[in-house]
Design brief:
The complex is a heterodimer of chains A (249) and B (348).
Chain A lengths: L1 E3 L4 E3 L13 E6 L5 H8 L11 E2 L2 E2 L5 H4 L3 E4 L11 H6 L14 H13 L15 H14 L4 E5 L7 H18 L2 E5 L3 H7 L2 E5 L4 E4 L1 H6 L12 E4 L4 E4 L3
Parallel strand pairs in A: 3-8, 3-9, 6-7, 7-8
Antiparallel strand pairs in A: 1-2, 4-5, 9-10, 11-12
Helix pairs in contact in A: 4-5
Chain B lengths: L1 H31 L7 H9 L6 H36 L11 H13 L1 H4 L13 H23 L3 H24 L3 H12 L7 H20 L1 H7 L3 H6 L4 H23 L5 H13 L4 H23 L10 H20 L5
Classes of the chains: A alpha/beta (249), B mainly alpha (348).
């Protein structure tokens, strides 16, 4: 897995063999530049694997058309949205595009799905605002609502809490956890919030320099896998607290 | 919440009714103005096939002013739609119908036809420039430069690079035109200059028919890309994840823009400002980025503004007609500057 460049291939990750079960909250942990985004981009077919395959419901994602994939997998990306005057409602409604007709007319089912996505993410009060008026935390919830409206079994989020304060980070994580429990969706996120991931995730994919772990948080703690996540000079994993702590300076 | 959505829709309906009425009124105002003053009664009679006091008046209305007003509507709406398509595709508020090098291509075609005759000898242009040779040269030039841009565009992944490639082709062609102009007679340079001023008049009904058919093909294409256009508002990655075939949609948009601007430039010269500015005016009036609303809005406003510009260009009651290209910029640029300064925020 990695980037195909003109003459040479840059391998970011190799020997990735993970299986993700339906209805789980999966977090991908790893330090900057280790390949979290590459992993997610490959799973979501934004880029091709160098070798091997991504199977979604036992079907190779290469053989799934864009159209079909859009009803199975939705995305929340880190990239900034281009400036426009879309309202929050219109933005969430765009999530229905895989189901609407050629002129993009919303059916009864479409509006129902949009409304339930709005209710689940608690953004009712925002829906008539323009999306550029929102705070980062609100925008993130709206983007999650858009992914929910797309009504897919799998939602992939790339660092959904990157610009958020502690309060909003916890809010997003508990929202995602709630969605997994209530809707049985499979949610895969990459994050740097290792402490929260350990508490909330059903499964953690841990990318370290030498090895790739994929297991339940407790199992990983028992395997002492978290010790490899960061260089030990500054941060240590405290298995009693089940948290990373900073070394005393 | 649905009721809110509906309320907004009726709000837009009011806008649309107002603008449509304005368009019809301006269409008649435009026809009624000109160097020869004709009474209203006779204008209506000649349009509706009634009896006209003077035969020359009927000829003026039916063969000169009516075709010109129709051309203004087609050119204004067509350029504005192309501007909207380009701004959304490139997610750049400064994009316009000419960023793809279409106008420079058309200019190159016309320059080779007019200026080239003295450089390459008389074989290109033995007789005077016929009515059809200018549009054909312009379309050929636009088509050639555009094909080059589209071929290059399909080799790069980044949409922004297409924008820059278009600009580069633009400066390449203007360089060639400068070289041609350097070796040409002043008479031919003047003839080329007049073409570049733009003109809405002088189209025969047969030319208008050709124009309208190609225009309609472009419009129908545009209606089919409304859905991808709206998904492009989230960026290409989201559009792809929504099941949109990004490459195919991009090619349809590029092709449609080139057909529309190609035919417009061929028949009326490179008309500045309209394509860039009208989408911004429409967004400010309608406060929307939804293409289902913006496309018709942009088409009507574009037609209205070009009709106004053309009416000003005729300098009512005078015999002079100013170049339309100068009016669109003189009238339009300050309006856009004022709107932007007041609003402080521009959108795609």
């Amino acid at each position: 897995m990695g980037y195909l460049q003109k003459k040479h291939t840059k391998i970011v990750l190799s020997n990735v063999n993970i299986e993700i079960e339906k209805g789980k909250l999966v977090t991908v942990l790893g330090k900057n530049g280790i390949g979290k985004s590459t992993l997610l981009r490959t799973i979501s077919k934004v880029q091709k694997p160098i070798s091997g395959a991504v199977l979604i419901n036992q079907k190779n994602s290469v053989q799934i058309s864009e159209k079909e994939l859009s009803t199975q997998l939705s995305l929340v990306l880190t990239e900034r949205l281009p400036e426009s005057q879309l309202t929050v409602y219109e933005l969430i409604a765009l999530g229905r595009q895989p189901y609407t007709n050629w002129i993009d007319k919303l059916s009864e089912t479409d509006t129902k799905k949009i409304n339930s996505a709005i209710l689940q993410t608690e953004v009712e009060h925002l829906q008539n605002m323009r999306f550029y008026e929102l705070s980062d935390g609100q925008l993130q919830r709206v983007l999650i609502a858009r992914a929910l409206a797309q009504d897919t079994e799998i939602i992939i989020l790339d660092e959904p809490t990157a610009h958020l304060d502690m309060h909003h980070t916890v809010k997003i994580f508990s929202l995602l956890k709630k969605l997994v429990v209530e809707t049985q969706k499979t949610i895969i996120i990459s994050t740097h919030e290792a402490n929260l991931a350990i508490q909330l995730a059903d499964e953690i994919v841990l990318l370290t320099e030498n090895k790739l772990y994929s297991d339940k948080p407790q199992e990983l703690i028992d395997k002492k896998a978290f010790e490899d996540l960061f260089p030990k000079e500054l941060i240590k994993f405290n298995s009693k607290l089940q948290q990373f702590t900073m070394n005393k300076i | 919440m649905r009721s809110y959505y509906r309320m907004k829709q009726t709000n837009y309906t009011k806008h649309f009714i107002f603008l449509s009425v304005l368009l019809v009124v301006l269409f008649f105002v435009n026809i009624s103005l000109g160097s020869v003053s004709i009474p209203f009664q006779d204008i209506f009679n000649s349009l509706l096939g009634g009896k006209v006091s003077k035969e020359s008046w009927e000829t003026i209305i039916l063969n000169f002013r009516l075709p010109k007003a129709i051309t203004a509507v087609l050119v204004g709406s067509g350029l504005s739609i192309c501007g909207l398509l380009m701004q959304t595709l490139f997610r750049n508020p400064l994009a316009g119908p000419f960023v793809l090098g279409i106008s420079s291509g058309a200019s190159l075609g016309v320059a080779i036809l007019i200026l080239g005759s003295s450089v390459f000898g008389g074989f290109l242009l033995t007789q005077s420039v016929s009515n059809w040779s200018l549009p054909i040269a312009a379309s050929l030039g636009a088509f050639l430069v555009l094909s080059a841009v589209i071929i290059a565009a399909n080799k790069v992944r980044n949409t922004m690079s297409i924008l820059i490639i278009g600009l580069m082709f633009g400066s390449l062609t203007s360089a060639i035109i400068s070289v041609l102009a350097y070796f040409s007679d002043s008479e031919q340079i003047q003839q080329y200059l007049f073409w570049s001023f733009g003109s809405l008049g002088n189209l025969s009904w047969r030319e208008i028919l050709v124009f309208t058919v190609i225009y309609l093909i472009g419009i129908i294409n545009t209606i089919f890309v409304i859905k991808p256009l709206n998904s492009f508002l989230l960026g290409e990655n989201y559009a792809k994840s929504l099941g949109i075939n990004v490459k195919k949609s991009r090619n349809i948009i590029l092709l449609t823009t080139s057909i529309l601007t190609g035919v417009i430039t061929a028949f009326s010269g490179p008309i500045a400002f309209i394509g860039l500015a009208v989408p911004h005016i429409a967004r400010m009036l309608f406060l929307s980025s939804n293409h289902k609303i913006l496309l018709p809005a942009v088409a009507i406003i574009g037609a209205i503004i070009l009709l106004i510009c053309d009416s000003i260009a005729q300098l009512p009651t005078s015999e002079f007609t100013l170049p339309i290209n100068a009016i669109t910029s003189l009238f339009g640029a300050p309006v856009v500057i004022w709107l932007l300064v007041r609003k402080k925020r521009i959108f795609v």
